[in-house]
Design brief:
- By secondary structure, this protein is mainly α.
- The chain contains twelve helices and three strands; from the N terminus they run αααααββααααβααα.
- α3 runs parallel beside α5 (about 100-125) and α9 runs antiparallel to α10 (about 255-280).
- The two termini are about 45 Å apart.
Length: about 325
């Protein structure tokens, strides 16, 4: 797995950047935040897999503090962003959304607070059930430690599940689809000139649902492995934030290794859902084609320069000072 983890993580991190300019122009902060969080965590997974290949020492405490907190924050960042997407789409489909500069500014501020503020608060609250600074696993890197107690259920695992289930089952996702199905034709006509067409609407809802399904799967996997030996009594909880545990691959329990691999695979799957549903649209295909064309021109330019240098190597100044390589 040591080849697949960094390669697929780097590919996923690069791919999720393609839709961000389009979502930025559309003012879709929630969708843009999903891409940003996926990019950050995929980059962390890739760098950690390279840095800790065959090693479990701690080269940088600061790096581990930041990355373990960000990996924790993404547990609620993605379902919170999906909830924002469904709220916004429901208001558009029910024609309650007024397109004034004031309401747009309020929505952007609210979505920024939910998509970035709530995850950071969640990561800070994790300190309540964090018995030590972090754990380090060979081939995987740093992860936050969690004391498996009843309080951890409410602080760590219930919030992402609650946000995900709220998005899918309880309220907003159902109303979003209902309004769209009732007013679909009228929506297509009135929004035809907007960046949010019917196809884009359906893709955004599908992306939100697929992302939260992955979040539910990741949360259930983490709960299953962390609580496999039962809940520990809170009276036995001790905290030492100067303590760090390091585990070699031989010392790491197979259940923990399976959990780490599953969490990584789910993150890659979320990234491919994110880019895949964007590319299904005509706008997405054209933007991706443009990006690939730019990359191909850059690579061909670099290759042409190297070839030109190789051909001119060893010649005199007067021989190569001609417009051969312009």
């Amino acid at each position: 797995m040591q080849t697949e983890i960094p390669v697929l993580s780097f590919i996923s991190a690069a791919l999720v950047l393609f839709p961000l300019p389009w979502y930025c122009r559309a003012g879709n902060i929630a969708a843009m935040s999903i891409g940003i969080w996926l990019f950050v965590v995929n980059m962390i997974n890739a760098i950690d897999a390279l840095q800790w290949t065959g090693a479990y020492q701690i080269p940088s405490l600061f790096w581990c503090d930041i990355t373990s907190a960000l990996i924790t924050a993404v547990n609620v960042a993605i379902p919170a962003a999906c909830l924002c997407i469904c709220i916004h789409l429901e208001r558009m489909a029910s024609f309650c959304q007024t397109s004034t500069s004031v309401t747009k500014r309020r929505r952007i501020l609210l979505e920024c607070s939910i998509c970035f503020g709530v995850p950071l608060v969640y990561a800070a609250l994790h300190l309540i059930v964090q018995p030590r600074r972090f754990d380090v696993y060979e081939n995987f890197g740093c992860r936050s430690a969690t004391y498996p107690s009843v309080i951890a259920l409410f602080v760590v695992w219930i919030p992402p599940l609650a946000l995900s289930l709220l998005t899918i089952f309880f309220f907003f996702a159902g109303i979003t689809w209902r309004h769209f199905l009732l007013h679909g034709v009228h929506f297509s006509r009135t929004r035809a000139s907007s960046s949010l067409t019917s196809g884009a609407y359906i893709r955004l809802v599908s992306m939100a649902v697929s992302e939260v399904i992955c979040t539910i799967a990741a949360t259930v996997v983490a709960m299953t492995f962390n609580l496999s030996s039962g809940l520990a009594p809170w009276a036995d909880f001790t905290r030492d934030l100067t303590k760090v545990l390091s585990f070699s691959s031989a010392e790491t329990p197979k259940s923990i290794t399976a959990m780490l691999i599953t969490e990584w695979a789910i993150m890659v799957a979320q990234s491919f859902f994110f880019i895949g549903l964007f590319v299904l649209g005509g706008e997405g295909r054209s933007r991706l084609h443009e990006a690939l064309q730019v990359m191909r021109r850059a690579l061909s330019f670099s290759g042409g320069r190297l070839t030109c240098i190789a051909e001119l190597n060893g010649t005199s100044m007067t021989e190569w000072y001609v417009p051969l390589c312009h």
